[in-house]
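Input record (Table S2, row 420):
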Amino acid sequence: MKSLEQRLEILADAARYDASCAVSVADPARSARHNELGIYESVGPDGRRLFLLKILLTNECIFDCSYCMYRRSSDVERARFSPEEVVALTLDYHRRGLIDGLFLSSGVLGSPDATMEQLIAVARSLRRDHHYFGYIHLKTIPDCADDLVAEAGRWADRLSVNIEMPRQADLDQLAPEKSLVQITRAMNVIRREIDLAQGDRLPNATSEHPDRGGRIRLPRRFAPAGQTTQMIIGATAATDADVLFAAASLYSRQKLRRIYYSAYISVDDGAQPDAPPQIARERRLYQADWLIRDFGFSVGDLTPPGAENLDLAMDPKLAWALRNPGRFPIDVNHAPKSDLLRVPGLGLRSVETILATRRRSRIALADLATMRVPLVRALPFIVAADHVPRAWGSTVVALPGLRRGWQQLELFDRAADQPA
Ligand code: SF4
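Output record (iron/sulfur cluster complex):
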C-alpha cells in the first residue's frame, strides 16, 4: 500500500496534463507554499491569481484514449485516493493557507457514474460537512447520468467536460469509446442548469432550498463560474479551421467560459501526431479564440478556404489585415467600434479609450502614443488627425521588407497571448 505522500506525488503529477483550467507549475522561488506537492498557480474566473490543489482522484481508467498516459493499456504506476482523503488533504492545505481552492479530476474508475459520485462526494462533504467556501473546480465525467452533473454543480464553482478533439472522426481515431454527442450532452445539462440558476437570481424569481424541505426559498446555486473545456491539438490531421469551428460552436451553443488548447505531446507508443508538438500553434489558437470571442472575427475571417491553418509567423489579426487591404486604412476619428477592433495594434482597452477621447477632441498620433497603442504596428492601418499612411493597398502589403518587418515585430511580442 502506497503512503498518502506517494499517492499525492503520483496523482498531482498526473493532474498537470489536464489543461481545462489555466495553470502553471508553482515556482518555489516565489513562495514557500509552492514546496508542497500538488499546488499550481491558476487564474480564477475573475482574473485573480489562485493557488489550487490540482489532483486526480485516481489515474486508473477503464478507457483507452491513445493520447492519454493513464489509459487502460498504459504501463504506469497507479494510485487512488478515497473521497475522505481528498477532503482531508484539501482542508489541511486550506487551513495552512497554502491554497485558494481545489481542482479535482479523475480517470474513470468502474463506471462513469461511480466515478462522478466520488467526485461529488468530495465537493459535497467540503461544502456541507466542513463549511468550506474555497474555490472548487470539478471535472465532469462525460458519460455519467444527467442528475449527477446537476448535483455536481450545486457544490462546485466551475465544471468542465473535456471535449478533447474537435471532430468525431478524431475521437474515432484516438478515443473510439468517446463520442461528441455524449460530451456535448453533458455540456448541455450544465448550460441548462446554469441558465436556470441565473433565472432564479432575477428579481422576481424564487426557488426551494433543496436541504430544507422547501420551507425556505433561496436562489439555486449552480457552478457560478461556468464551464470550461480542453481541446488537444496536433494529435490528428484536424486543421485550425476545424478546431476554431468547434470552439465557436461551443461558445455559442454551450456558452463555455473558456476553451483551453493543449498541444499534443506524444505519450510513448500511442497516437503519433503528423507534426511535432506545436506550442506556437497553441499560442496562435489562443489568439484566434480571443479574436472570435471579443473582437467580432468569424472563423472564416481567420481561416478562409485555402488557409485552413493559422500563419505561425504572425498573429491572426495581422494576417487577416494583410489579406484584406481593401478594409484599410481606418480613420480612428470616425470608424465604428467594429472596424477599430480589426486594426492590428488596437486592443479592447485602447478602442474604448479612442471612442471616449474622440467625443471631446480629434485624435492625433500623440494621443495614441499616450494610450500606449503600439504605433509601429498600427500606423500602416490607420488615419489620424495628423497621419495618413503614405501608400496603401496592394503596393504596400506586397512589399516584402514591410512584411518581414511585421514578422520581426512578432518575435518581440511573444509574451502576451491577447492579440491587439
Ligand atoms: S477517459 Fe480520461 S483518464 Fe481515461 S484514458 Fe481517456 S483521457 Fe485518460
